[in-house]
Amino acid sequence: MEFLQQNWYWAALAVVSGAWLLVETVRSGNNKTQLSPVQATLLINREDAIVVDVRDQGEYAAGHIAGARHIPAGELERRSGELDKFKSRPIILCCATGNRSAGALAQLRKAGFEKVYNLRGGIMEWEKAGQPLSRKRK
Hints:
Elements: H1 2-6, H2 8-28, E1 34-35, H3 37-47, E2 50-53, H4 57-62, E3 69-70, H5 76-79, E4 91-94, H6 99-110, E5 116-119, H7 122-128
Parallel strand pairs: 1-5, 2-3, 2-4, 4-5
């Protein structure tokens, strides 16, 4: 008890971080389509997942996941045929924050893609996790 009195801030930090983890777990629910940057990296490395960046050209040029294909969200419906040859492989969609790519996920599901995932938090979370970005043009 004396330890807690002298180190109350550590106990408070533990409670707050535990609560945050609980909220994140509840918020994501059983949604298996949302991937953290670590989960995305594992899927890329283990199952040869394809990354599709749905941001605008300027955002993509500023930095993207290495090897990512660039199909802006507004062009996805028209260009989804470019991804047909990858229907058997996992596809990870990403944007700046995860919102546009969530919409893109719904479009690809509607087009018959089954192994489609969204990078939760987008490129912002990718960078926060310390993952590298490429500026090379594909």
